[in-house]
Amino acid sequence: MRRYALLMTGAFALATTVTAFAADHTVTARPNMTFDPPSLTIAPGDTVTFVNAGGFHNVESDPDAVTPFHCSTACGASPIGDPSSAIWQATVTFPDAGTARYFCSQHGGPGGVGMAGIIIVEGSDVIFASDFENPPGA
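Given the sequence above, the corresponding structure tokens read:
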């Protein structure tokens, strides 16, 4: 039991540390039908805030993205997250390492077609204290 308590304390400290150093990045949908920057490398636990700076846009992840999303004025399943000409912003958290290609469904498509970009999440996955709530053999 004592070992479990130490493990939980260590896991909590690690999760708190990672969260404390998580960064927020910004990707802007431009009126010229580009994302700026088109490529972004982040760490697990970081967030990306997508911003529409003008035009009829949204941001949608490719089907095989490490973190799925479909956003504009809000994030969610269609019609939520469909293209909008409003000046919107939406924030997505990327907890797992991997790749997330994305595109504007009005001006691009999966695989980097047209108005598209890529987020590369490098490093180890974030470990949350809740991952240790029911350890094997407890």
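The chain has a mean pLDDT of 85. Try to locate this feature in the token string yourself.
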